[in-house]
Automatic annotation (TrEMBL):
Entries under InterPro entries matching the protein: Mg_trans_NIPA (IPR008521)
The keyword Chaperone belongs to this UniProt entry's keyword annotation: no
One GO CC term, this protein: early endosome
TM regions (residue ranges): 6-24, 45-63, 83-104, 124-142, 154-176
Assembly and interaction partners: Homodimer.
Record-given protein name: Probable magnesium transporter
Highest taxon in the source lineage: Eukaryota
The entry's keywords: Cell membrane, Endosome, Ion transport, Magnesium, Membrane, Transmembrane, Transmembrane helix, Transport
Membrane topology, from the record: Multi-pass membrane protein
Protein family according to the UniProt entry: Belongs to the NIPA (TC 2.A.7) family.
One Pfam short name: Mg_trans_NIPA
GO molecular function ontology, one term from the record: magnesium ion transmembrane transporter activity
Function summary: Acts as a Mg(2+) transporter. Can also transport other divalent cations such as Fe(2+), Sr(2+), Ba(2+), Mn(2+) and Co(2+) but to a much less extent than Mg(2+).
Length: 180
C-alpha cells in the first residue's frame, strides 16, 4: 500500500538525485598509471587497507564462531546469532567485493588514458588491476550466491547491498583523498 510516508520518501529520493546530478562534479580526472600506483601506496590508503583486513578477519571469526555456537548450543542464543551471522557474512563479502569497484575505476581510467593518449595497456599495473578486479568481483559474486543459499533473501540481500555500498563509498573516499 502506498502511504503518505512512502510518497514523501520517494519525493526526497528524487529530489536528492536531482540535486546530485545538477550540482555534482561532472568531470573526472584521468590519472596516469604512476599516479594511480602512487595513490595505492599512500600511507592513509595503506592504513585503511590494514583496518579493512582487520574488519574482514574479525567478522569472519564472528561468523565461524557463530556457526559453532549454533551447532552446539540450545535455543537461548539462537535469535542473537541468527541476526549476527548474516550481518558478519555480509560485512566480509561487502568489504572485499567493494574493492572491485576501486579496481574497475582504475581499469576504466587506464582505458580512458589509452583512448586519449595512446597509452599501451600491456604493463604490470594493468594486468595486476585486471587480476585484482576479477578476484574481488568473483569473490563478491560467489559469496552473494552462497549467501542466498544460506540465508533468507529478504534479510541477506539488503545487508549485502548496504555493506557493499558503504565500503565502496568509503574505499573511494580514502583512495581518491576526497577528505582533503
Amino acid at each position: 500500500m502506498v502511504t503518505v510516508k512512502v510518497l514523501a520518501a520517494t519525493a526526497f529520493i528524487v529530489l536528492g538525485n536531482f540535486f546530485l546530478v545538477a550540482f555534482g562534479n561532472h568531470q573526472s580526472p584521468v590519472y596516469t598509471p604512476e599516479q594511480l600506483a602512487e595513490k595505492y601506496s599512500n600511507i592513509t590508503f595503506l592504513l585503511y587497507c590494514l583496518i579493512l583486513i582487520l574488519v574482514v578477519a574479525l567478522h569472519h571469526y564472528i561468523y565461524r564462531r557463530g556457526e559453532i555456537v549454533l551447532a552446539v548450543s540450545g535455543q537461548d542464543l539462537r535469535p542473537y546469532w541468527n541476526m549476527l551471522l548474516p550481518f558478519s557474512y555480509a560485512v566480509v563479502s561487502g568489504a572485499v567485493g567493494s574493492c572491485s569497484v576501486l579496481f574497475a575505476k582504475s581499469l576504466s581510467n587506464l582505458l580512458r588514458l589509452a583512448m586519449s593518449n595512446g597509452y599501451q595497456l600491456h604493463s604490470w599495473f594493468t594486468y595486476s588491476m585486471i587480476l585484482l578486479f576479477l578476484s574481488t568481483a568473483g569473490f563478491w559474486m560467489a559469496r552473494l550466491n552462497e549467501g542466498l543459499s544460506l540465508f533468507d533473501a529478504i534479510l541477506i540481500v539488503p545487508m549485502f547491498q548496504i555493506a557493499w555500498t558503504f565500503f565502496s563509498i568509503f574505499t573511494g573516499f580514502i583512495y581518491f583523498q576526497e577528505y582533503q
